[in-house]
Design a protein that fits this description.
Layout: H1 3-33, H2 38-46
Length: 55
């Protein structure tokens, strides 16, 4: 394997792990805060009908 492709693969793994860690952190924060207001955040973030930029 070339050095360049190895660097690209390492960066991709780092990016994916950072995304996963941020999602886990959000879930842990929701658990610790209780489910009074975080439920609204879940609806805003994940509802496809909201018409966000993410399909």
């Amino acid at each position: 394997m070339r050095k360049g492709s190895f660097v690209i693969a390492a960066l991709l793994v780092l990016l994916i792990s950072m995304i996963i860690l941020s999602h886990v952190g959000q879930l842990v924060r929701m658990r610790t805060n209780g489910f009074s207001f975080p439920q609204k955040e879940i609806v805003i973030n994940y509802a496809p009908s909201s018409g966000g930029g993410i399909p």
